[in-house]
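Q: Hi! Curious about what ABC transporter ATP-binding protein looks like structurally. Here's the sequence.
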Amino acid sequence: MVGLLGPNGSGKTTLLHALLGLVPLAGGEIRLWGRDIHRLTARERARRAALVPQGTGPAFPYPAAEVVLMGRYPHLRPWRGYTERDAAAARSAMDRAGVAPLAERPVTELSGGERQGVLVARSLAQEAPLLLLDEAVSAMDIHRKIELFDLFAEMNRREGATVVAVLHDLNLAALYCRRIVFLRHGRVHADGAAGEVLTPGVIEAVYGTRVLVETHPVTGRPVVCFIPGGSRGTGG
Ligand SMILES: Nc1ncnc2c1ncn2[C@@H]1O[C@H](COP(=O)(O)OP(=O)(O)OP(=O)(O)O)[C@@H](O)[C@H]1O
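A: Let's find out. The predicted structure is below.
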């Protein structure tokens, strides 16, 4: 479970897109389970990696259940429609993501946080072992954030899923991500265990804001405390 952190424009989304083979590489190569990503078909990639994109999802008023079912696309056999197995996977994904009551609602009529829940459910329906989350819970209330990150952590622990989560919420990352990678200007600035890299020095260098780092009274993990005025005079 990896947290991918860094300022606006530092390259987090670009890196997720690169991991999915959606952008050409300037150099090097990316392998998923030993296979060069650019030698896999779109279908093969989608069976391995699911993305919860930043943003609000489809602009058309599809019912939420239909959007979730779209996650089954890489599993469809040519010229065949969705099977009962696909419908069951979509229902289970909606249950797990806590959006089953929204099934019949047009996604364009949902709130921002509700829509994000539907996109999470779509990625779960995809049943890919690599889950790429791009600010997937940013519009959700704290109850939903904790509920979904508990789910991702359980998928990571019990089901062997790899989760790469782009986050602006440093404390959510501190609570759930074993490894944290900080990007800055398109390069890795720090990469290590949460306790090693969530330090005032690293955070100030990456974001240009002063912080205090304390210890979480329950989990023992780092807690980042922000300071009003902390961004003043630090250069950004
Ligand atoms: N399609 C594109 N064409 C050209 N430049 C792009 C494109 N998409 C992103 N960029 C640029 O690449 C840089 C990295 O963008 P990216 O979306 O990866 O940042 P990010 O770290 O995800 O930022 P944020 O936290 O704001 O979501 C930015 O400077 C951005 O303007």
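A: A fun detail: The chain has a mean pLDDT of 94.
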